[in-house]
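Provenance

Sequences were taken from public entries as deposited. Structures were produced by running a predictor on each sequence independently, with no templates supplied. The record for Carnitine transport ATP-binding protein OpuCA from Lentibacillus persicus is shown for reference.
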Amino acid sequence: MYLDISNISKSFQRNDEQSLQALKDINLEIKEGEFISLLGPSGCGKSTLLSIIAGLTKPSSGAVSLDSKEITEPGPDKSMVFQEPALFPWMSVKENVTFPLRKKMRKHEQEQAAAAYLKMVHLSQFAENHPHELSGGMQQRVAIARALAMDSGLLLMDEPFGALDEQTRLVLQEEVERIWLETKKTIVFVTHSIREAIKLSDRIIIMSARPGSIISDFKVDIERPRQQQDMAKLEEDV
Ligand code: ADP
Ligand code: MG
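Predicted structure for Carnitine transport ATP-binding protein OpuCA:
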């Protein structure tokens, strides 16, 4: 699915009657099947932009459209993974994955979808367990399986590995990369790690704060990240 973000601005009303401009004039076109990373310091509006794309937050002005259709609310055409897995603790792993599918398909189809996506994130043997029985990294994999099971063309990920240790992060990075290669979904991935962005995405958007805007938009050159000097320079720039 392709995404057209046009003149998005967002202000939040604050208690002291002043408003805070979180995003100013964001313009961005994301092609079908593109894996882009949004990068920038804390508070530059990455989560706000993702939430607007997801239809969870209304922009103050501007519009986002998905395959030329304006996004005004959440829907099955887009799915989101947050920094915290946000699973239902009283449901089994399998039930967490099938929950968003309950109005979309028959029971046995839900079961098939859950089995397929739990296999994709290597959790088949944990289908009947409850979230508290799993590690943080495994819970995040359940959240990824749940988002994938919706089978939307657009996957939004907001610092999905931010709360995980380095080792788990590396494993999940590889899984997301493999899933993207297998499914060819359009992915918008928020991170504040330049290394992660270079490793995973084919395009990087860098934002800055006050007010949140895009300061750089470039394609990732596969050869470049192998050169440590360039990496160091990029890290300085962010
Ligand atoms: P990031 O994800 O890049 O860290 P956010 O999108 O979370 O940034 O926040 C951007 C700015 O908007 C911050 O200054 C934040 O405090 C403010 N903000 C975000 N959500 C709200 C909200 N619901 N109400 C008021 N201010 C908000
Ligand atoms: Mg954020």
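The longest strand covers residues 19-30.
The pocket of magnesium ion (ligand 2) is lined by residues 46-47 (CB under 6 Å).
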